[in-house]
Amino acid sequence: MTKIKICGLTRQQDIDFVNEAGPDYAGFVFAESRRQVDADQASVLRKRLAGGIQAVGVFVNAPGEQILDICQRGIIDWVQLHGNEDHAYITELRRNTDKPLIKAVSMSRPFDPGELKMLDVDYFLFDQGGGGSGRTFDWSRIPQLGKPFFLAGGLGPDNLTQAVRRVRPFAVDLSSGVETDGVKDREKILEAVRSVRNE
Question: Which domains, ranges and CATH numbers included, belong to the chain?
Fold first, then answer.
């Protein structure tokens, strides 16, 4: 069954919505973004998160020490890398943490599938751009890299069923697609999780 991640949580009510809906993952963005939280804010939100939901930290070219500190504080269970992190960066991070690693791939920029295959990560995430863009991409362009992947980019209650059926990702990742006027929307989160669970 396809898993679901709700990303970009910033408010306590966002956590309440997610706890009610029961997705598999909740995402906290530590990179510069309108959804950015710092470690202390994320710690408070994490403590409110229901036990069965795993927390994912989203980073963009962050110092390794920052990621490791947040991991060691028990704030996140997974690490998602959304920048230009290369083989050396990921190898060093892997040496210092056993958290599952997700590497995001922007489908709007050229990439070398051979280089991606060499990265010591557990999952890939395919997105239209830098994350939170609210736009989809041509799913037929997803490369076969031999690892499970998250599908992101412009996903919401209206196209989730199509995405799951056509792409069969390990997980879908939603942010702006479950927002109204820039904030998380309880009804959209509930609907999104229901639609994935029903597939």
Answer: 3-197 (3.20.20.70)
